[in-house]
Amino acid sequence: MNALLKLSRLIDGLNERIGRNLMWLVLFAVLISAVNAVVRKAFDMSSNAFLEIQWYLFAAVVLLGSAYTMLRQGHVKIDVIVGHFSKRTQIIVECVGIVFFLLPFVYKVNELVWPLVIQAYNSGEMSQNAGGLIRWPVYALVPAGFILLGLQGLSELIKRIGFLTGVAVDPTQPVQTKTAEEELAEEILKHQVAPEVIGRVEDAIDMVSDQSRNGGSGSTK
């Protein structure tokens, strides 16, 4: 069981990193939308590529972020009946749902979608709109997102079995302590410092290089 719990932590870590990086796509989508709107209103110009990249980014956030949402216990649950059961019974019901509904659904979607992705890739399918984007990358987001969702479902199943056997904590407690907007703001503030640090490091490297060149010239003389 310890090996399975370790696997579960690896899956959780993968989807945690993917989910946190996806926050930047939300910012990029907003910026592209704003620029596109300003250009269209101010200069009466527009681009289908800019319009399509917005829903490409939105598709990436929704599909690749579904596993992250499941990790954070953010999916909507209808607990009208199950909410009255004991915690152990609720966990058993969720295990049944994962095994008999979620994982088979993930498998079936991937089975149906992969041929379409391969066909679009081989044919180089493009958007029907003038100046639009190539299609296979956004098609590939569907199986990629469902694979991540299936992996997270497996992780959630392992954690629930661990809880039932007494070797893991309650996995149904939400781990989200901040809103998505607060997390995105923190990431932006964190990366605002990075250019300054990089600049200082580059200045230090230049200074050391100059000193080395001057020292080398002196020794040559």
Main attributes of the structure:
mainly alpha, globular, single chain, 5 helices, 221 residues
Give the topology.
Blueprint: H1 2-43, H2 48-71, H3 87-123, H4 136-164, H5 180-220
Helix pairs in contact: 1-2, 1-4, 2-4, 3-4
Number of strands: 0
Euclidean distance between termini CA atoms: 70 Å
The main sheet comes to: none
Radius of gyration over alpha carbons?
A: 24 Å
Write the element-wise H/E pattern from the N-terminal end onward: HHHHH
Number of helical segments with 4 or more residues: 5
Q: In percent, how helical is the residue content?
A: over 70%
Strand content: under 5%
Quick one: overall form? globular
SS class: mainly alpha
User: What average pLDDT do the residues reach?
Assistant: 84
Question: Could you name the ranges where pLDDT drops below 50 across 5 or more consecutive residues?
Answer: 216-221
Briefly say what this structure is.
This protein is mostly helical and 221 residues long. Helix content is 78%, strand content 0%.
Commentary on this structure:
About 80% of the residues lie in helices and about 0% in strands. The protein is globular and about 65 Å long. The model is unreliable at about 215-220 (pLDDT under 50). The chain has about 220 residues and is mostly helical. Helix 1 (about 1-45) runs antiparallel to helix 4 and helix 3 (about 85-125) runs antiparallel to helix 4 (about 135-165). It contains five helices and no strands.
